[in-house]
Amino acid sequence: xxxxxxxxxxxxxxxxxxxxxxxxxxxxxxxxxxxxxxxxxxxxxxxxxxxxxxxxxxxxxxxxxxxxxxxxxxxxxxxxxxxxxxxxxxxxxxxxxxxxxxxxxxxxxxxxxxxxxxxxxxxxxxxxxxxxxxxxxxxxxxxxxxxxxxxxxxxxxxxxxxxxxxxxxxxxxxxxxxxxxxxxxxxxxxxxxxxxxxxxxxxxxxxxxxxxxxxxxxxxxxxxxxxxxxxxxxxxxxxxxxxxxxxxxxxxxxxxxxxxxxxxxxxxxxxxxxxxxxxxxxxxxxxxxxxxxxxxxxxxxxxxxxxxxxxxxxxxxxxxxxx
Length: 323
Ligand code: NAP
Ligand code: F7E
Description:
Elements (H helix, E strand, L loop, with lengths): L3 E5 L4 H12 L3 E6 L17 E5 L5 H11 L3 E4 L13 H22 L4 E7 L22 H20 L3 E6 L2 E2 L8 H13 L6 E3 L5 E2 L2 E2 H13 L6 E3 L5 E2 H11 L9 E3 L17 H7 L7 H19 L1
Parallel strand pairs: 1-2, 1-4, 2-3, 4-5, 5-6, 6-11, 7-10, 8-13
Antiparallel strand pairs: 9-12
The structure holds NADP nicotinamide-adenine-dinucleotide phosphate (NAP) and ligand F7E.
């Protein structure tokens, strides 16, 4: 019989790539969606007929319990979150409710309903924040720098605590930044590739950005969802850093993205706007994925250049189709 997986956050970037991946593996996939006046299933366009949707919200304990009861999955991938770091200063309470307490609510539902369900928590490199050690590994102390990072740290520790308290198969993947053609438009990578596409098509002249000296360890989301699955197929529940081990600046990203459309003087098209600076910045993030490599046989497959090319090309296509 095929395995059953419940994905929270299925409408998002990772949720949709994970659904693609699990369907190809023969899973029965359930996707939790929350009520909205206009549900956006764009990322699931090609696979939505193969997914069974259930209604639930990370801020509502009973709805989560019902999702478990109605689906009785073998595995839960908890990807739902208020995931935009910049927004977390505007809505710190909502961010904490969804991104921190939401994890507790799912773990409580697992404990009550079926403690055999395997649980994956989407932890984040933002927990390392002002990096105490570079590159960061599973043993590096945390120093979050945003309400989002603090919320993710709660989700991370409560996952470990429920594993140790109740013997749940509960694991975290501490994922460094990863991107794809489906990345939300407010994140810097997609904001750049969409901006480059518009400049290339003559629709815009500039892109306005904040701190372009920030450095990130950027991987490709389809490579990273494979790691999520591998973490739950392991014989023991534990946590893994998933990263590429290389960091680049936003400036490096800009240079590569503009080169895709043949523009070499990228700085002529970039404006710096203070409104995109954050109250506290994470200057650099870089991860050491050697534990995942050794124990899961996981490694990143897609280079930064390949990924940026895919993203710019996809944005040009999307924009052209609407002209
Ligand atoms: P994303 O595209 O922003 O997707 C977030 C998902 O969460 C969406 O499906 C959203 O649904 C859902 N959601 C938000 N609030 C909810 C609520 N109250 N109840 C139920 N669902 C809710 O994020 P992503 O980039 O795919 O990231 C997936 C997960 O990994 C997130 O937890 C993120 O924090 C974490 N993470 C991401 C990265 C990265 O670089 N991408 C790195 C480390 C960790 P709607 O469509 O209804 O808004
Ligand atoms: O910012 C700088 C910004 O918003 C990256 C989420 O998936 O990864 C993501 O969080 C850097 C920051 O991602 C703009 O200040 C400059 O230093 O693309 P971002 P993030 O904050 O790293 C982690 C791992 C997650 O877990 C999160 O869910 O780029 N930057 N100018 C800008 N950033 C944005 N968004 N917009 C700008 O105009």
